[in-house]
Design brief:
By secondary structure, the protein is mostly helical. The protein is 75% helix and 2% strand. A two-stranded antiparallel sheet has the order 1-2. Helix 2 packs antiparallel against helix 3, helix 2 runs parallel beside helix 12 and helix 12 crosses helix 13. The termini are far apart. Its main location: membrane.
Length: 316
């Protein structure tokens, strides 16, 4: 009778996982995670402030960078409540509806970031292919329309996810494999058929993130074709150098994403620590490192940051 009741129970909460197998070590994670979240806010805020202050940075490339920065911050901060709940307050339980809400925002900002990276690839293609008409093609209105389209598309794509999860019964276990809510992790706990959810997740990966990756790759094929047609070697290197920051941003987003996707689909035999580590890398790596990449690789931003610190040093 006891087994029958358990098998027919339907959980209304999920349990988030801190450090698998070592719950007593969770409080120690407050310090590195707090440092990473602080670094995310500080680094991205500096990039936004520099772009706002320097009139020479009021160009399409930097407007897209501003959108990327805001997306990075939103992406990482969407998990802050659950992270604080586990590692700071030692309260891993999260309500079912709260988990679904967090899941929606995480996946939404993931799709938005992918779309912004596609927009930035288009920006680099236009800048190299048609530099003379660059500003007239990518006007403020066009950039705004691209931003709204990316945001709307992300909402439409992710919107069915919460409803597909909400219809499932959860009677086997309610312990998630990560410190925050993901559609894939929740689907694995359901005690009913999840074919629709799996198909939905696969369609998103292929026709949204996969298609975005293909468009970015195709854009760079066209960019390379244009660059190779430039006679001067110095001009070739200069043109390619303007793309380096974006290439690094693409790698920082897609490599962890591919890793998380592969682990969820074929890494069931791997240690839970690997799942947790990859999930946190996917979440925090782009938002922490993108400001550093653009500060180091973009001369205009680097110069402006140095000037700000020099003015502060002289004033003291």
């Amino acid at each position: 009778m006891m087994n029958f009741n358990i098998s027919n129970a339907n959980y209304h909460t999920f349990i988030l996982t801190g450090i698998p197998g070592m719950p007593d070590k969770n409080p120690w994670m407050v310090f590195p995670l707090g440092f990473l979240y602080t670094l995310t806010l500080l680094g991205n805020s500096i990039i936004l402030a520099v772009i706002k202050m320097d009139q020479s940075l009021h160009e399409p490339m930097y407007y897209f960078l501003s959108i990327l920065v805001l997306t990075d911050v939103s992406f990482s901060m969407s998990t802050l409540p659950s992270m604080l709940s586990i590692f700071w307050f030692n309260a891993p339980e999260i309500a079912f509806d709260a988990c679904i809400t967090e899941m929606f925002f995480i996946h939404r900002f993931g799709v938005v970031e992918s779309g912004v990276l596609v927009s930035m690839a288009f920006d680099r293609f236009v800048a190299i292919q048609n530099l003379l008409h660059y500003a007239s093609i990518l006007t403020h209105g066009v950039i705004g329309e691209i931003g709204i389209t990316v945001l709307t598309w992300a909402v439409c794509v992710v919107f069915p996810g919460p409803f597909l999860i909400k219809r499932l019964p959860f009677c086997r276990s309610n312990v998630l494999s990560h410190s925050y809510c993901l559609h894939q992790a929740a689907t694995r706990l359901a005690c009913a058929s999840t074919h629709v959810n799996s198909l939905y997740g696969l369609i998103i990966v292929i026709f949204t993130l996969g298609l975005d990756a293909f468009i970015i790759l195709f854009s760079y094929v066209l960019i390379l074709k244009t660059v190779l047609g430039i006679a001067s070697t110095a001009e070739r290197l200069k043109a390619l150098n303007t793309c380096l920051s974006h290439v690094y941003a693409v790698l920082l987003f897609y490599v962890p994403l591919i890793g998380v996707t592969m682990i969820h689909r074929s890494g069931k035999h791997l240690s839970p620590v690997v799942h947790t580590l990859m999930a946190n890398i996917y979440l925090l790596l782009p938002s922490v490192l993108n400001p550093t990449v653009y500060s180091v690789k973009t001369k205009q931003i680097r110069r402006q940051i140095i000037q700000v610190f020099q003015r502060r040093k002289n004033s003291t």
